[in-house]
Amino acid sequence: MTESIPKKPLKKGSLVCVNKSIYDKSVEALSSDEDLPSYVFEGPGEILSIKEEYAQVRWRRPVPDVWFKLDQLKEYIVEV
Question: Where are the domains of the chain?
Fold first, then answer.
C-alpha cells in the first residue's frame, strides 16, 4: 500500500523555484516581462517573508527581491 507523502507547506526560509507551467497561466505573467530570467525557474531562491498568499523571494544573485503568489512556487529539490 502506497500513501502519498504530504506536501510540506512553504514557509520563511524555504528554498524555492517558480513553477513555470503555473506561472505562465497566471495574471501576473500577463502583466510582467514576457521572459523571466531562467534562474527563477532553476532556483534556488529563499522565502524572506510571507503575507497572505504572496511570498517575497531573494535569489542568490545581485538582483532585487521579488513577490510571487505561493501557488506559483514549488520547493527546490537538490539534484545529487
Answer: 15-75
Please give the C-alpha separations between residue 34 and each of 24, 26, 29, 30, 37, in angstroms, as whole numbers: 9, 12, 7, 8, 10
How are the residues of the chain apportioned to helix, strand and coil, as percentages rounded to the nearest 5?
A: 20, 30, 50
Calpha distance 17→20 (Å, rounded): 9
| CA-closest candidate to residue 15, choices 55, 69, 63 | 55
Length of the chain in terms of residues written: 80
**According to the model, what pLDDT value does residue 47 have?**
97
Indicate the pTM of the whole model: 0.83
